[in-house]
Amino acid sequence: MNPSDVLSALVSSKLRIALVGVLVVVGAVGGAFVLGILGVPSVAAVDNTFGDVTNETTEIETDLVVSNPNPVGIGLDGVSVNYTVSMNGIEMAQGGREGVSVGTGNSTLELETRLRNDGIPPWWVSHVRNGERTTLDIDATATSDRLGRGVDFSRSREIQTDLLGAFNSDETRPVNADSPFVSDPVLYVNETRGEWGTVSESETPIEMAFTVYNPNFEPYAVTEIGYDITMNGVAMGSGQTDEGYVIPSESTETVEFTTALQNRHLDDWWVTHLDEDVRGHQVTDLRIEFYAVIEFPTGEETTIPLDALTYEERIETDIFGEGDDVRNGTDSSGNGSDSDAGNETDGDSSDGDATDDGNQADDSDGGTTDGTDDGSDDGTENGTDDGSGDDDDGVLPV
Fold first, then answer.
1. Same domain, yes or no: 32 and 13
2. Any domain includes 32
3. How far apart are CA 38 and CA 46, in angstroms?
4. Mapping DSSP to helix (H, G, I), strand (E, B) and coil, where does residue 313 land?
5. In a domain, 153, yes or no
6. What is the pLDDT of residues 66-79, one digit of tens each?
7. Residue 216 phi, psi (nearest 5)
8. How confident is the model at residue 323 (pLDDT cuts 50, 70, 90)?
9. What does the record list as coiled-coil region(s) (predicted)?
10. Range name among 1-5, 212-216, 250-254 with the lowest pLDDT average
């Protein structure tokens, strides 16, 4: 036999053997997936932070960690990941990616979604109605359509605030008229009380009560009490009482009235709350100023700023639980506990749609109602992604 024919036959045989070997390995791996011998990729963690904030939208940056328990990478077009962030059942953001390729171990997908700031008021309403408590839920799913199996991941965190607690006070404070016609103090406020009223979609009322003492020998008429409410300098509401009160001489009277935050201004406040350059990480300074119009026995009326009753309260939150490293001091209002859970499901996995009507979405390319984005700038770590899938943008209504 010709030596060249022998060499050709030998090489051809080795190529056939190598090809068969590759086919056997591929078949074995595919069969292992089908039989469940190899694991289905799952979501190991979802970490969110707030990004750029404009007057209209708030960016949510998400690191979604996909765990591949197998010794080989996976590049199946049928692998997809989806996640939903909601607060008190109101959808804040929804995102995902189709056609994910992951290496072994953990791979991090960087996703971006945008919530509409005009969705803030519905969340605020739910927060106040729920006793200033918000449950943050993060639900994610990694699904292999080819295998018909998916793994769910869920995480919950409770956020609490106390905006009015410090307003309840038994401290006695004098009210001075600074008028040549009367002697100061003209009145004393011995007690202040405040609680949330019945919140509506348009306003958040605060029911207030002042216990007022008149130390003088003549009765005084308080014809009007007015107020101005600001949050981080944003005007949230102003108004005055509809009726007057007579404070008998050397007697005590309880003055009751209602103030209100106008919910339409909450999206403007939200932008300031997330502005770390001004006050720090998610900080709000609430301020309520009062004035009174008092009619003296002479018939003269004087408008008196009630500076001693000015209420100031600092509110801090850490909505996504980014940790104490981004906060100064003790978290008295935004602390919460986290809980993670994961379980495997068969069939098509839900992408975690919200259960509330706060489902507006804003697409970074112009805005849609289904919350999708091209995701072309997303990346991976410890793995690869083909970038062919879409990112879903979402919404919010605190």
1. yes
2. yes
3. 23
4. strand
5. yes
6. 887 777 766 645 57
7. -90, 170
8. low
9. none
10. 1-5
User: Does one domain contain both 46 and 26?
Assistant: no
Looking at the chain, which runs of residues are DSSP E strands?
A: 42-53, 57-68, 79-87, 90-98, 105-116, 133-144, 149-160, 173-175, 187-196, 203-214, 220-231, 234-240, 245-247, 251-262, 283-295, 301-305, 311-316, 338-346, 380-381
CA 54 to CA 373: how far, in whole Å?
18
Domain count, the chain: 3
Whether 258 and 352 map to the same domain: the answer is no
On whether residue 328 sits in a domain, the answer given is no
**Residue 87 is encoded by which pair of tokens?**
């607060």
214 pLDDT higher than 50: yes
End-to-end C-alpha distance for the chain, whole angstroms: 87
Question: What's residue 95's pLDDT?
Answer: 85
Q: Looking at the structure, tell me whether residues 26 and 53 fall in a common domain.
A: no
State pLDDT tens for residues 37-49: 457 778 888 899 9
Residue 60: give the domain boundaries.
Answer: 42-161+338-381
CA-closest candidate to residue 166, choices 332, 311, 331: 311
Residue 233, phi-psi category: left (phi > 0), alpha (psi -120 to 50), beta (remainder) = left
Q: Which two tokens stand for residue 61?
A: 């940056």
3-state class (DSSP) for residue 125: helix
CATH code at position 306:
2.60.40.10
Instruction: Output the DSSP codes for 319-342.
Output: TT---GGG--S--SSS---EEEEE
Q: What is the pLDDT of residues 347-386, one digit of tens each?
A: 444 333 333 443 433 443 333 333 334 433 443 343 434 4
Mean of per-residue pLDDT scores for the chain: 77
Asked if residue 330 belongs to a domain, the reply is no
Question: Do both 111 and 148 map to the same domain?
Answer: yes
Distance (Å, whole) CA 285 – CA 208: 19
Would you tell me the crossing angle of helices 120-129 and 266-273 to the nearest 10 degrees?
90
142 and 170 part of one domain: no
If asked whether residues 174 and 288 sit together in one domain, one would say yes
Among 118, 50, 48, smallest CA distance to 276 is for 50
pLDDT digits (tens, 9 = 90+) for 224-243: 999 999 999 999 999 998 88
| Both structure tokens of 51 | 């990004």
Per the document, the length of the chain is 398
Euclidean distance between CA atoms 49 and 113, whole angstroms: 11
Same domain, 369 and 277: no
How many whole angstroms separate alpha carbon 18 and alpha carbon 36? 27
